[in-house]
């Protein structure tokens, strides 16, 4: 018994050591994913964020064809970096809708004029309410929505050039 | 040239540490006694060299030498000199150099001033200190060289994180590190005692001042850090149960337990193995804390540069030192005889319960801090924060406080329960009175934990002074005063915490120039908002006039500061301290209608939290002086008799 | 004087997009209390236990991040229309998982956390057993 107790501290330490090592080997990605993936999109209705695009209602995302829902903001740098990839996706025939977070119409107009406009509809989420309802934790993020209004995939962070084929595949699989 | 000289000093210190360890090894294990003669001078020289290296790094920062990478990355020539100076340790490499400097200085101090320890244990201790230093020197030299140059030199530096540009940076990290790393001495003592199989009362008496010294500085460092976070983060919180805070709390808990168990060992020759274990745990917690903070495996609000590769290096050191010490413990502690047993009602039991509860809290803080990492391994993200720690550690801490009040009123060896109860009568009456009063005044308005916190603070406050009751105050030894003051400090601090969470008044307001706001008893008049410029920042400053009752108005100037060199905005809270609390005002953003956001808190007696911390450290200092002075007096007397 | 204020205000707002923070003013109840103190206390208690998504290891009650402000505002507004705090917490956990709540949830993966104090105290008593001498007759 005493023997066991004497070696217990070392045993406990080895356990912690293994834990630390695993923490270093697999660093925390710090990404908080939405738990709504696989579930139906929450209902919302947003006013137009840009002068030449309509606003966005959740039912418009369930029209039988998979769509990409992009969460962005004009004040967000990675969103500008992501713009060419979204344009490329639009060229491929992907229908992209967007929600602009904490934004104002003139700013969105300026952003689209500068970086291109791949969106069909853009809803304005001035108080991040819909973003929170979606379980999204930052900008930019993109959701692949299947034809029935179900979220099938969430992409956290900007879509890089090498992510584009994967996104296309996800959209195809969602059919 | 300065950078090269610094690097050379670092290498020389590394070489001397290696030599020190080798000499101790051959001297003790190989039986070559003559080798041991040079160990002490080498330890002193090693300490001197590392101090020189650190001084040279400070010189590089003060001169804004932009050919040194570390200065370029963390400093700026426009910075006020205080932040150039303190900025030396406001980064990873500099703070690690501070770490080894403290370690080297502690080793030199043990070589110079330790007289009570047996010679072989003393030498083994210096060997242990050299062994730990060696790893951290290697870490600096091979993975975090603070003296690296860049060519060509940069035009100017990138500046220091604005959150760190505060006088707190000059005081908090050095004090905390002195305590954190000072515990390495206790660790080396434990290694020395295990190697030479000498764990007894004399060993404990030799170790006690070193533990006490480190603990005092650790207490001051944590207190200062808490106050700094309180006024800098701008939300009125003083403890967030954040991983970095827990990393500093865990060594403190272990050191506090050690401080008490070492007294049991010194006085009654009991708790031998346990005291050695705690000495190992205390510094192990310092190393674990450093690993958690710097490896980036946990997220924290506090500013720290993280780097997984360096994390790996620290993890290897951690495994080597902690694993080695615990293996040595398992191997050798069987040879340590069990100390004297003791009666159920005795001061020994009280101190053992103190140790048990402190260690349980330590274990819970460790588990709680690491729990998200454990669940992450199973692919599940969770958060463990204040609600858990408050609810779990809070009640245990309150019980601990009660034991703390009862302990000094109980005799060593054996006491009678009825007698102890009689000594506790006055505090108990105060507690009952406090329960009744609080129940009458604030029932249902304040939480359960703050409620009992206030009750316990009052009772323990009275109980902690009780050891002085009916004693000749002039003949009471200084270390008894020290204990009384430290215990009183715990009660004072607890009272501050309980008052803050029970009675704080919060007022969030949006005001125009000319408006006034009511927060608790205070009326604040928003007079104007104006821009001002500092050395390396510009700010918007609000001028507020605060009035309470019919008193004279006091001006308050909260700011929103913008630092161009880091493109960051910080809030500078305005604090107004009164004897019964603090008014805390933060200037927020401008709202769309042109009104300004103000966050105002009236925090009754919140300052007691840090006052308590200072009292705890002061008590420790008195105990240290008292014990040491008595030692000198005895020695003089012996000399006079001889 | 006013111009200087405006200039600095511009400086601040220009710097905002660089930092990736929205220039929009905070949501109505982000920094405004509910007038009913009972409801405000309820909301505040909940906010202190909800983790901020865009910052490091902070609750939304002590964060300057705009998303934390939006969450505070949303929580206050929902409490005002009579929603229970635990319902809002469950709603957030449904979206962000247990991570979002500092208050440990009923998830079995968290049970060991509650068992820990009892285990540790039990272990301590086990260590103590036999160390304390029985009272002499």
Question: Can you walk through the features of this model?
Answer:
- The complex is a heterotrimer of chains A (175), B (642) and C (137).
- Chain A has 175 residues and is of the alpha/beta class.
- Helices cover 38% and strands 19% of the residues of chain A.
- In chain A, strands 5-4-3-6-7 form a 5-stranded mixed beta sheet. Chain A has a two-stranded antiparallel ribbon with strand order 1-2.
- The model of chain A has no long low-confidence stretch (mean pLDDT 91).
- Chain B has 18 helices and 11 strands.
- Chain B has helices at 2-29, 39-62, 69-74, 81-86, 92-113, 119-143, 168-196, 201-232, 243-268, 272-295, 308-332, 347-377, 386-406, 417-423, 425-442, 448-465, 478-503, 608-641, and strands at residues 342-343, 505-511, 516-519, 522-533, 538-548, 554-556, 559-563, 568-572, 574-578, 581-590, 596-604.
- Chain B is globular, with a radius of gyration of 26 Å.
- Chain C is mainly α and 137 residues long.
- Helix content of chain C is 54%, strand content 1%.
- Chain C is elongated and about 70 Å long.
- Classes of the chains: A alpha/beta (175), B alpha+beta (642), C mainly alpha (137).
- Chains in contact: A-B, A-C, B-C.
- Strand 1 of chain B pairs parallel with strand 1 (132-133) of chain C, so a sheet runs across the interface.
Indicate the topology:
The complex is a heterotrimer of chains A (175), B (642) and C (137).
Chain A: H1 2-25, E1 45-46, E2 56-57, E3 67-72, H2 77-91, E4 96-101, H3 105-115, E5 119-125, H4 129-134, E6 141-145, E7 151-156, H5 164-173
Parallel strand pairs in A: 3-4, 4-5
Antiparallel strand pairs in A: 1-2, 3-6, 6-7
Chain B: H1 2-29, H2 39-62, H3 69-74, H4 81-86, H5 92-113, H6 119-143, H7 168-196, H8 201-232, H9 243-268, H10 272-295, H11 308-332, E1 342-343, H12 347-377, H13 386-406, H14 417-423, H15 425-442, H16 448-465, H17 478-503, E2 505-511, E3 516-519, E4 522-533, E5 538-548, E6 554-556, E7 559-563, E8 568-572, E9 574-578, E10 581-590, E11 596-604, H18 608-641
Antiparallel strand pairs in B: 2-11, 3-4, 4-5, 5-6, 5-7, 7-8, 9-10, 10-11
Helix pairs in contact in B: 1-2, 1-6, 2-5, 5-6, 5-7, 6-7, 6-11, 7-8, 7-10, 8-9, 8-18, 9-10, 9-12, 10-11, 12-13, 13-16, 15-16, 16-17, 17-18
Chain C: H1 2-19, H2 37-47, H3 66-80, H4 85-96, H5 111-128, E1 132-133
Helix pairs in contact in C: 2-3
């Amino acid at each position: 018994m005493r023997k066991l107790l004497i070696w217990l501290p070392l045993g406990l330490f080895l356990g912690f050591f293994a834990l630390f090592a695993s923490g270093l080997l697999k660093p925390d990605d710090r990404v908080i994913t939405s738990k709504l993936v696989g579930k139906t999109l929450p209902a919302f209705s947003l006013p137009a964020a840009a002068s030449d695009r309509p606003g966005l209602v959740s039912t418009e995302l369930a029209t039988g064809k998979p769509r990409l829902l992009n969460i962005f903001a004009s004040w967000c740098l990675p969103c500008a970096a992501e713009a060419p990839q979204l344009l490329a996706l639009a060229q491929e025939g992907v229908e992209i809708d967007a929600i602009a977070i904490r934004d104002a119409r003139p700013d969105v107009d300026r952003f689209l004029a500068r970086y291109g406009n791949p969106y069909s509809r853009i809803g304005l989420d001035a108080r991040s309410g819909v973003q929170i309802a979606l379980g999204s934790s930052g900008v930019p993020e993109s959701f692949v929505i299947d034809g029935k209004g179900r979220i099938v995939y969430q992409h956290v962070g900007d879509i890089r050039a090498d992510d584009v084929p994967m996104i296309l595949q996800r959209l195809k699989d969602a059919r | 040239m300065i950078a090269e000289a610094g690097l050379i000093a670092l290498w020389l210190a590394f070489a001397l540490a290696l030599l020190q360890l080798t000499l101790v090894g051959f001297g003790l294990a190989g039986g070559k006694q003559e080798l041991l003669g040079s160990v002490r001078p080498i330890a002193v020289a090693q300490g001197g060299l590392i101090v020189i290296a650190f001084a040279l790094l400070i010189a590089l920062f003060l001169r804004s030498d932009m050919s040194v990478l570390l200065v370029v990355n963390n400093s700026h020539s426009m910075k006020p000199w205080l932040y150039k100076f303190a900025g030396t340790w406001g980064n990873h490499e500099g703070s690690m150099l501070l770490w080894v400097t403290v370690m080297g200085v502690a080793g030199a101090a043990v070589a110079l001033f330790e007289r009570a320890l047996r010679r072989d244990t003393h030498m083994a201790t210096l060997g242990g200190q050299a062994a730990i230093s060696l790893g951290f020197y290697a870490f600096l030299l091979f993975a975090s060289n603070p003296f690296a140059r860049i060519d060509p030199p940069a035009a100017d530096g990138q500046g220091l994180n604005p959150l760190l540009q505060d006088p707190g940076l000059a005081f908090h990290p050095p004090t905390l590190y002195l305590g954190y790393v000072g515990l390495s001495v206790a660790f080396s003592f434990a290694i020395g005692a295990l190697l030479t199989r000498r764990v007894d009362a004399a060993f404990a008496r030799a170790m006690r001042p070193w533990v006490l010294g480190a603990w005092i500085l650790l207490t001051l460092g944590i207190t200062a850090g808490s106050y700094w976070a309180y006024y800098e983060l701008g939300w009125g919180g003083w403890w967030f149960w954040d991983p970095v805070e827990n990393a500093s709390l865990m060594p403190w808990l272990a050191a506090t337990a050690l401080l008490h168990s070492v007294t049991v060992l010194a006085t009654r020759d009991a708790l031998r193995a346990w005291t050695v274990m705690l000495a190992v745990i205390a510094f192990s917690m310092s190393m674990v804390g450093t690993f958690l903070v710097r490896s980036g495996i946990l997220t924290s609000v506090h500013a720290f540069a993280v780097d997984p590769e360096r994390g790996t290096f620290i993890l290897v050191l951690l495994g080597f030192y902690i694993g080695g010490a615990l293996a040595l413990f398992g191997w050798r502690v069987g040879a340590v005889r069990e100390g004297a047993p003791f009666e159920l009602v005795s001061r020994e039991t009280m101190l053992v319960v103190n140790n048990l509860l402190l260690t349980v809290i330590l274990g819970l803080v460790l588990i709680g801090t690491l729990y998200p990492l454990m669940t992450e391994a199973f692919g599940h993200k969770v958060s463990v924060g204040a609600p858990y720690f408050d609810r779990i550690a809070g009640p245990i801490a309150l019980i601990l406080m009660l034991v703390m009040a009862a302990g000094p009123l109980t005799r060593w060896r054996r006491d009678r329960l009825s007698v102890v109860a009689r000594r506790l009568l006055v505090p108990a009456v105060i507690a009952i009175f406090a329960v009744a009063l609080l129940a009458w005044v604030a029932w249902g308005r304040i939480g359960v934990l703050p409620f009992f916190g206030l009750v316990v603070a009052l009772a323990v406050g009275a109980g902690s002074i009780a050891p002085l009751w009916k004693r000749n105050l002039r003949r009471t030894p200084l270390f008894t005063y020290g204990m009384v003051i430290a215990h009183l400090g715990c009660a004072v601090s607890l009272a501050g915490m309980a008052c803050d969470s029970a009675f704080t008044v919060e007022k969030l307001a949006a005001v125009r120039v000319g408006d006034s706001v009511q927060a608790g008893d205070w009326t604040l008049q928003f007079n104007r908002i104006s821009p001002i410029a500092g050395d390396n920042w510009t700010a918007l400053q609000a001028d507020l006039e605060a009035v309470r009752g019919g008193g004279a108005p006091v001006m308050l100037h909260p700011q929103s500061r913008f630092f161009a060199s880091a493109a960051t905005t910080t809030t500078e809270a305005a604090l107004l301290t009164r004897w019964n609390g603090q008014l805390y005002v933060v200037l927020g953003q401008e709202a769309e209608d042109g009104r300004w956001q103000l966050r105002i808190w009236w925090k009754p007696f919140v300052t007691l939290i840090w006052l308590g911390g200072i009292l705890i450290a002061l008590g420790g200092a008195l105990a240290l002086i008292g014990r040491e002075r008595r030692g000198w007096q005895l020695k003089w007397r012996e000399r006079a008799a001889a | 004087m006013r111009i200087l204020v405006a200039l600095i205000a511009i400086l601040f707002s220009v710097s905002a997009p660089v930092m990736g923070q929205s220039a929009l003013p905070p949501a109505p109840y982000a920094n405004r209390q509910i007038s009913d103190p009972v409801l405000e206390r309820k909301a505040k208690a909940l906010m202190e236990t909800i983790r901020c998504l865009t910052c490091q290891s902070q609750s939304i009650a002590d964060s300057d991040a705009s998303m934390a402000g939006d969450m505070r505002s949303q929580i206050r507004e929902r409490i005002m229309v009579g929603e229970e705090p635990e319902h809002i917490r469950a709603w957030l956990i449904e979206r962000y998982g247990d991570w979002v709540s500092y208050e440990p949830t009923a998830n079995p993966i968290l049970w060991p956390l509650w068992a820990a104090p009892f285990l540790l105290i039990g272990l301590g008593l086990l260590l103590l057993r036999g160390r304390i001498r029985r009272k002499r007759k």
